[in-house]
Amino acid sequence: MRYTKIPSETIRRLPAYLRALIFLDEKSREYVSSKDFSEYVHVKSPQIRKDFSYFGAFGTKGVGYRIITLIEQIKGILKLEKVQKTALIGAGKLGTAISLYPGFKTYGFEITAIFDNNNNKIGTRIGEIVVEDCWNIATLSDRDIRVAIVAVPAQSAQETADKLVGAGVNGILNLSPCYLAVPKRVKVTTIDIAMELGILPYYA
Amino acid sequence: MRYTKIPSETIRRLPAYLRALIFLDEKSREYVSSKDFSEYVHVKSPQIRKDFSYFGAFGTKGVGYRIITLIEQIKGILKLEKVQKTALIGAGKLGTAISLYPGFKTYGFEITAIFDNNNNKIGTRIGEIVVEDCWNIATLSDRDIRVAIVAVPAQSAQETADKLVGAGVNGILNLSPCYLAVPKRVKVTTIDIAMELGILPYYA
DNA sequence: TCGTGTGAAGCACTTCACAGCT
DNA sequence: AGCTGTGAAGTGCTTCACACGA
Lengths: 204, 204
Prior knowledge:
Two copies of one chain form a homodimer. In chain A, 38% of the residues lie in helices and 18% in strands.
């Protein structure tokens, strides 16, 4: 099956797989079977085997999958082998919280630039990074930054996205509760915390 | 089709539909056609009609759907008619940012209690709410709070979830990068910002 | 014996296309 | 003429079940 297109649903599961695999690797485990792994990621075992089979067979029958090999494979598919420099736009409460969140390096992301509109914030430090004026976003193309996190108020989100697109960014994680219009070459993922809350009462 | 089970994929789209409908309502629009609405929510028009048909036919042929009626229908299905009191656990940077986020009331959520472990934070105010000790989580059952947002470090997330479950909470929005084990009656939605970033390079 | 790898079957959601109402 | 509502067809993901290898 190595040459078959990987289903998008499989791709969606890969980051969760990766997180669990890194966790297992840190526990010094060498192999994991699809049945055991199922407990960690809450995906049924035939699904896991099917998913792994899409990127080539390399499990050992009777034993399971080698964890380091899986990590390498998944990082390869998701293009996370090398560190991805990431920009953060918005140095408000949410932006600051995010910039200090340690989980990014699990996936190879590193926030290397922070931008804000507010003159009171420009020039201050968050962690070790000096907050820059949003007009500097245009310089991202020269700084090898292709991924950005947008944590600005909804009314300035589209304007920010336009600047990012102009600077050659091709992946945006949007934390504003609004849709962003971007060219097809740019992938946007929007997380609206309030909207995610919205489905809970239905299931309760 | 009124009596058919609504597909879970349709349910997932409803919060986004609701957000767009409220936006249109605020613009004083009365009707919207599936074709127009498609532009706002980026779902194809036959899909929108299908989705709406699951909760009973009430569009007007040649005209479209009455926006207020749609809002009522969707709020009814998602059980968002009345205000949902919501607890926030974790008064750190992320928790504070969330508590000040104005978007919750769009969906009828209102944060009415905040908890933290840190003695320096207990007793202080965030907005108008006094931060309580986490041991008080047990009192939620008497306070008509059934939904909670978990914004604590990963290592204390499971412990927090256990307390919430014990207090009768049946919906948890988990912002920690870890899986929470809960009884079947409890619905958990986990948002891991770093993990969401993880799929961007693949598409870029 | 245990666990992978995979064709085939099953299932669920999406898209189509058009009848029918306004 | 315009747009809804919906069976039917299409599509793609999930699950099954078992042959095969360690």
